[in-house]
Amino acid sequence: MSIFKKITHVFLRLEKLLAEQYGQSKASFFAFMMIRIMVTAVLIISIISGRFEVLNLCILTLILLMVPAFIERTLNADLPTHFEVFILLFIFSAQMLGELCAFYIKFPWWDTMLHGTSGFI
Predict the structure, then answer these.
(1) 65 near 36, Cβ under 8 Å?
(2) CB 88 within 8 A of CB 32
(3) CA distances for 70 relative to 15, 17, 21, 84, 114, angstroms
(4) Cα-Cα-Cα-Cα dihedral of 44, 67, 22, 77, to 10°?
């Protein structure tokens, strides 16, 4: 039971830090929360269905979604809101749509589009 309390404490602390970070901009906070809710829903479904490769992809995506906030905190930099939202959407498009929903296979131009947009980033 003690380990559960520690994990819960870490998640609550992380939640507070993310709310502080993304609370400054409503657009980036909304994008971050909506994407995070979708990824978390897929994560829960993958646990229930026993698809652990999807679970790993969801965990990786959740970690990558925290990169802009981590960069701003550690480098003491202020990323523009549009840039943050663009990065979050790019991560979601590459990881969840591209890999999980097989957009790389369904749409031949998907990989080219993501590589083109990554050049703008």
Answers:
(1) yes
(2) yes
(3) 13, 10, 9, 12, 23
(4) 170
DSSP state of 96: I
Q: Band the pLDDT of 34: cuts 50, 70, 90.
A: confident
User: Which has the closest alpha carbon to 117: 92, 81, 80?
Assistant: 92
Largest Cα span, the chain: 49
Helix or strand holding residue 51 (H, E): none
In terms of average pLDDT, the best of 11-25, 38-52, 70-84 is: 38-52
CA gyration radius, the chain: 16
Residue 18 amino acid letter:
L
The phi, psi pair for 50, rounded to 5°, reads: 80, 20
DSSP 50-114: T-HHHHHHHHHHHHHHTHHHHHHHHHT----HHHHHHHHHHHHIIIIIIIIS-HHHH-TTHHHHH
Residue 69 contacts residue 79 (beta carbons within 8 Å): no
